[in-house]
Specification:
- The protein is mostly helical.
- Helices cover 79% and strands 0% of the residues.
- The radius of gyration is 21 Å and the shape is globular.
- It starts with a helix and ends with a helix.
Length: 273
């Protein structure tokens, strides 16, 4: 049986004991891309959409490598950074492939509701700006879209929790589809505990992010020109938002690595018994 309290203790011990090894990874591969992503994400319509998408993709990939490096360092008993970064580089392609597999699966699951909306005249390109709310859907179609969308969101959240150990499995054991199956199997029996922990992480993250965008944003708005997407105030907000996202990502990556080790030990103990 995995004790989440023990896993959290090991996570905090790892973070406090490996600050020097983690710092270059966190600054270069987490804080920098998260801050840039936050900055370009609020750049506004005057910035090329293609450019924003390319920068966002680059930031996501860099941050993914950073997560793998943190996981590898947390899995390494000696805490050797060069070995962890080499492991992250070696497993990076498989992690990207696993992400693509999951994205394809989610896209196929979303196909019925997307097809229904397209067949009923919804401008899918306008969904990000409220296109669905302006669509003239009949009662039956609107009910189907709403219920299916709710079920899909619940399914995605459930799968996300079940696959929370995916990156540690990829780093420690390799594989793509096999890693997905292995992560799913390892999380069996502790799903509700994982939901509780991840829900707590998300709540803390959302509260911190809201504080940055509201309180700090208002204060900076009184001192700087916040209309300019690349003003000093916007840059400060982006860095602070990136710092919050980085802290969240760092804790989740380290926790998932320690949870993987605990789940593995529990399985091996059960098999030996």
């Amino acid at each position: 049986m995995v004790n989440m309290g023990n896993v959290w203790d090991r996570t905090t011990e790892f973070l406090s004991a490996n600050g020097r090894a983690l710092s270059p990874i966190v600054l270069a591969a987490l804080l920098a891309p998260n801050s840039v992503n936050a900055l370009v994400g609020g750049a506004g319509p005057e910035t090329s959409a293609v450019m924003v998408q390319l920068v966002t993709l680059a930031c996501v990939l860099i941050a993914l490598w950073g997560q793998l490096a943190v996981v590898a360092l947390a899995l390494d008993p000696a805490g050797v950074r060069p070995r962890a970064t080499a492991a992250a580089t070696g497993r990076f392609g498989r992690a990207v492939a696993a992400m693509l597999v999951l994205l394809v699966i989610f896209a196929l699951l979303a196909a019925p509701v997307i097809g229904t909306m397209a067949a009923n005249g919804v401008d899918l390109s306008a969904l990000r700006t409220g296109g669905l709310t302006r669509a003239n859907l009949t009662g039956g179609v609107a009910l189907f879209v709403s219920l299916y969308s709710i079920a899909l969101v619940v399914a995605v959240l459930f799968v996300t929790v079940r696959l929370a150990l995916l990156y540690p499995v990829i780093v420690a054991e390799g594989g793509v589809v096999a890693a997905i199956r292995r992560a799913w199997a390892l999380s069996r029996g502790m799903v509700w505990k994982m939901i509780g922990v991840w829900l707590l992480f998300v709540i803390v993250y959302l509260v911190a992010a809201a504080a940055i965008t509201s309180a700090v944003g208002v204060a900076l708005g009184l001192l700087t020109d916040m209309q300019n997407p690349f003003s000093a105030g916007r840059i400060v907000i982006a860095i602070l938002s990136g710092a919050v996202t980085t802290a969240f990502t760092l804790i989740v990556a380290a926790f998932s690595a320690k949870l993987y080790l605990a789940a593995l030990a529990a399985r091996e103990g059960a098999s030996a018994a």
